[in-house]
Amino acid sequence: MASAGTADKTPQLFGHPRGLTWLFMTEMAERFSYYGMRAILVLYLVNYLLLPGHVETVAGYAAIKGAFESVVGHSLGVQPFSSLIYGTYTALVYLTPFFGGILADKIWGQRFSVIIGGLTMAAAEFILTVPSLFFLGLLLLILGNGFFKPNISTQVGNLYKPGDARVDSAYSIFYVGINLGAFLSPLICGTLAETRGYPWGFFAAGVGMLIGLAVYLLALRSLPPDRISRLKSKTDTKKKLTGQDWKAVFAIILLCIPTTFFWATYEQQGNTINLWAQDFTNRALIPGVIDWQIPVTWFQAFNPFMIFAFTPLVVAYWARQAKKGREPSTVTKMALGNFMLALSYLIMAAAAYVTGPTGHASWLWLFAFFAVITTGELYLSPIGLALVARVAPASILSMMMGLWFITSFTGNLLQGYIGSFFSQMDKTQFFLMCAAIGAGASVVTWLFNVPLKPILEKKPVKVDELAEPQADPHLQPRPAE
């Protein structure tokens, strides 16, 4: 089948370059590793590692706790300290991709960076099985992710010619791969951690990362040349950024501001929402009828399962809106995503209010929370990735992708600080605070719509304008704009 929107006549699969399938599988395995570890991290800290009798053996514990206490200005109990560790770790995981993207653009290329990142993260997961080396394991995960994350995402965009309308749907498909891995990991890593011990959960995460790396090595022939290779062969000319390029960069930076606050509340899922599921939720499947208790870590599978269940529905809904000329702009979609985030925390506030400070809310409250926050995520996260791939200047694409991930860095730093109040505040007030942050981000994003729309809403180029037509045009999915 002839290629459309790629540099060569690359083999196609379901209307997309075959390399997308390999990248989908690689990212799925890597996200299995990351989210498997994340699903048990706070529980591991609160229930085991930071308790007397264990914490004394952890290398660097006293120095790191002292550093956090000097920042917040008071001593830290187990839960607040756990929240700050979790928030700082998840923040740094999204800071290092900025530098990993720069190194890939200028020196190493995307392929080598992904391989080094995968090896480092696999080693880190296995190191985490040794409690005394906990902080070393976290450090290696942070560094490895910095090489892996921006460069796997950038290669999705590199599969398509500039302006190819399929790139948005490609990122939506890629996003399903992310969440398929994230769905399976709490069921496997979480179950092993709760039944066999936490080290088994980390071990399973390490195996998942090795599988992802093996898939990627098999995929190399199907992937486009590295950007650094194209620069050296002078197939990419070194041009200065134009005025329009700088406008696009400025627009992306502006949208990073409210997106930071989205992640500050969204990422409570692996932190305080995990603790809510453990300590304040009636986890009996049907109380009085089927009293089997849903494992705590399984709630971390709700969001990724709903991602790939809801994605086709949301994309179809946008397509129906587009036919009627009513599809929201990119920025409006992101504003709606923040609004739904706020609504999800109003659901949690209602759950806390109805059950009171000592009660246990039905797990169905969490189900409703995840359904709403997942829909909000679909309106913001994959749309943001596709936006960067579509409008960022080609010469700094990996760096701009890394910059977009910095919103998760700043958001998670704030998330850890916000979560440290969970054990100190009334739970209704805590969730209302989270809802207010999401609502504020929604308003700010919506206000950006008018000035940024002319810069960001470029008309996609049809596939048949880029290259010869597909043998079967009906295989082309509509882009999620």
Into which percentage range does the β-strand content fall? under 5%
Spatial strand sequence of the major β-sheet:
1-2
- Rg estimate, integer Å: 22 Å
Average of the residue pLDDT scores: 84
CATH architecture: Up-down Bundle
Overall helicity: over 70%
Shape: globular
Distance between the termini: 26 Å
What are the low-pLDDT stretches, counting only 5+ consecutive residues below 50?
1-8, 459-481
CATH topology: Growth Hormone, Chain: A
Task: Give helix and strand order, one letter per element, not per position.
Answer: EEHHHHHHHHHHEEEHHEHHHH
Q: Number of folding domains?
A: 1
Q: Which CATH first-tier class would you pick?
A: Mainly Alpha
Number of helices: 16
Q: What is the fourth-level CATH superfamily?
A: MFS general substrate transporter like domains
Query: What's the total number of strands?
Result: 6
Largest β-sheet summary: 2 strands, antiparallel
Structural class: mainly alpha
